[in-house]
Fold Adenylosuccinate synthetase.
Amino acid sequence: MQHLDNNKQHNTMTVDLLLGLQWGDEGKGKIVDVLTSKYDIIARFQGGPNAGHTLEFDGIKHVLRTIPSGIFHKNAINIIGNGVVIDPVVFQKEIEGLAKFNMDVTAKLFISRKAHLILPTHRLLDAASEASKGKAKIGSTLKGIGPTYMDKTGRNGLRVGDIELEDFKERYRTLADKHEAMIAFYDVELQYNLKEMEDEFFTAVEDLKKLTFIDSEEYLNKALKEGKSILAEGAQGSLLDVDFGTYPYVTSSNTTAAGACTGLGIAPNKVKDVFGIFKAYTTRVGSGPFPTEDFKEAGQTMAKVGNEFGSVTGRARRCGWLDLVALKYAVQVNGVTQLYMMKGDVLSGFDTLQVCTGYNYKGQTIQHLPYNIEPENVTPIFTEMKGWKADLTGMTTYDELPQELKTYIEFIEKEVEVPIKVISVGPDRKQTIMK
Ligand code: IMP
């Protein structure tokens, strides 16, 4: 922490990206929070309230959903970019949750007019779609993310800027009526009171208006010209990317580096560093393939020690060993320049660790993520490594770390060919070791 603060330097005219490299929940919120003192602007570029970015500092634990993780830093400006989808109802609650911190949110949080709105009927459509899929359900957080992005690409969506139009309510009605017909088409039983949901929505929309709406691509590019530094904050993880993830068990946005360009209006040649965040092991919440998932004691220990429950839905996360095949893939797709390893402390106590270094795929050994990654096609090939016993949570320097952990870190760096710059050994800002 100390090092990061003292190291304040502006990356003139460039943007750095911070992304999750696995299936989300890597601990991005903590790292953005730790890094924010280095940046003038923190910008979220995709996803919505399906995210839950947990920050812990000074004994306080707080979960952010749509608001960027720089909100707790004094001087950082926080932007919700055009690539994000906003549910005014969830957003209102999030703003209310910040009241106890005595900050002037309106002065440091701006929203893109081009960000799309999640309507109450989007949430219902999400529920209807999942219910109709039965066993094949995605395991969505049911926040209306998929249906909202469908309306965006289908050119039917409502955007934040539309709130300022006189006929916003009529536009809303037209779309909501269409959604109701679609919900009926699914032919599943849903209990809901749309009138109540809509009252709540329109009250929240009035509250949303208290914040400043901006043309965020204009704002950000102007800031760049003025020499300001920007950190783009991703949500979910690379393996949930709609193009490169384990489709169809993915979210509906581009969670990878390219998504930061389209989700903020920033050109690729303005991007400098790409910080890739990964856990020392792997977790996944929801359905879909997970080659290194451990159904035995090791997986259970990781879940228990790592407190692996979803910060949004409370669902238990599936746990397993580190998958270097998947990590290499994510590093490649994102152009990662620095790795940040989270939750190293959770692995303390294992006699041995397994690391996946290849897949057995239809009788062959491969080292990339194939099109058919389902369990019947892919079996992980593990390399065994020595574990360590020491409790890491109080350690503050790289030198203090046990030799076995250093070997684990060096092995990952060699395989993935990118340096690990930060090792996180606990949830608090202070439990962050620079290498
Ligand atoms: P949706 O984005 O809510 O539709 O969910 C699609 C898939 O992505 C489900 O498997 C979710 O569990 C997963 N997912 C969505 N957001 C997150 C997140 O922030 N962390 C981890 N998994 C997520």
User: Anything to note?
Assistant: Residues 71 and 112 are 16 Å apart (CA to CA).
